[in-house]
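_Full entry_
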Amino acid sequence: MTDPIADYFTRLRNAVRAQHRIVEIPASGIKKEITKILFEKGYILQYKFEDNVVQGTIKIALKYRPGTKISAIKDVQRVSKPGLRKYVGKDKLPRVLNGLGVALISTSQGLMTNKEAMKLNIGGEVIGYVY
């Protein structure tokens, strides 16, 4: 696998479209950070890191509107790819759906959302968009 983050986003997107309740994803450090941010921003219901095997897995419980099959996640897009990295400065940070979505930014101070990066006045690599 050449792009594990794209695989993470694809598994998440496919699980939402198939209306699954739980999705399992192979774990890594950056995937764990992305999962924590998605939980903090209310896109997923719950998560659990299982480190009982060599690599470990992340179990994510997807969030749906009560009584319906409408997911909190509409779409997940990968922006910066291994073949073409996308970096932005502090004054060019992206806004997703006029502030309704979040952009995941990898900065020198760790992974954070575009709004947190604006507050800290730093730029970085745009990992992806979630809305």
